[in-house]
Amino acid sequence: MSKYKYLLWDIDGTILDFESAEKAAIKTLFERFNLGECSDEMIERYSKINRKYWQMLERGEMSKEKILVERFVEFFSKEGMDAGISDSFNREYQLALGDTIVFCDDAMDIIKEQKKEFEIVLVTNGTAVAQKKKLEKSGLQDIVSHIFISEIVGYEKPDINFFKKVISEVGINDLSEVLIIGDSLTSDIQGGYNAGIDTCWYNPKGIKNESSLSPTYIIQNLHDLDSIVN
Q1: Which domain of life is it from (predicted)?
Q2: Average pLDDT for residues 57-74, to the nearest whole number?
Q3: CA–CA separation, 112 vs 143, rounded Å?
Q4: Pairing between strand 6-9 and 146-149?
Q5: What is the secondary structure of 83-140 as a DSSP string?
Q6: What separation in angstroms does the CA of 220 have from each of 19, 183, 204?
Q7: Burial class, 211, CB count within 10 angstroms (exposed 0-12 / middle 13-18 / buried 19+)
């Protein structure tokens, strides 16, 4: 019998392949905005900028509203393009992100199987408009018990207040029965540490952990969860 009753799943980069959605959305919008071709190298440069801004959000250094636009301002400026379109580009981008649904490591099948034994809770820092579209199109909203989107909760992972909201609304009484699964050390694993729950770092690319955090578990494939939770 598993020690866990509640599995907290991150969405982007854990359940859903965010890089595929990001790439498809940006390429589509470059065409829609008549910006010419967007190369894979350009998307890689954008991704680095994007990660930097999300980490600023996680540290509480900038509001979500601001980082969503400023990341594109920096990207377009560095590419020698018109940064004045950043706000409208971001609005379209939020919607376009939900058009491409690719699951990581059979995540949907894994979650469906886990649902027979565990309470599945989704926890995400993504924007409400993007996540709601993804949840509907992927079918995830129909199979999980609870969904917590930071923009609606009012706090971002890894803020302890985000997790307090989750714990309270789900009705969790014993934190030792909770496991969070996520790909981000700075939001998912740090958040789990802040909340006092076990953590599972999903690290499919085998990235070196240069932080001071020590996840309870580390996996490179979501199928490896079976040996942890069962």
Answers
A1: Bacteria
A2: 96
A3: 7
A4: unpaired
A5: GGGHHHHHHHHHHHGGG---BSTTHHHHHHHHTTTSEEEEEE-S-HHHHHHHHHHHSG
A6: 16, 10, 4
A7: exposed
Question: Does the global pTM surpass 0.90?
Answer: yes
Question: Which three-class secondary structure state does DSSP give residue 201?
Answer: strand
Count how many Cα atoms sit within 13 Å of the Cα of residue 17 in the half-sphere of its side chain.
Answer: 15
Domains and CATH numbers, the chain: 6-16+102-229 (3.40.50.1000), 18-99 (1.10.150.240)
Report the distance separating Cα 85 and Cα 48, nearest Å: 20
* Residue pLDDT, tens place only, 171-210: 999 999 999 999 999 999 999 999 999 999 999 999 999 9
Instruction: Please name the amino acid found at residue 75.
Output: F
**Residues annotated catalytic, as ranges:** 10
Adjacent-strand bridge partners of 202: 219
pLDDT score recorded for residue 38 = 97
Percent of the chain with pLDDT over 90: 98
Dist. CA 119–CA 7, nearest whole Å: 6
- Chain segment 95-135, per-residue pLDDT in tens: 999 999 999 999 999 999 999 999 999 999 999 999 999 99
Structure tokens at 90: 């971001």
User: What stretch of H or E contains 58?
Assistant: helix 40-58
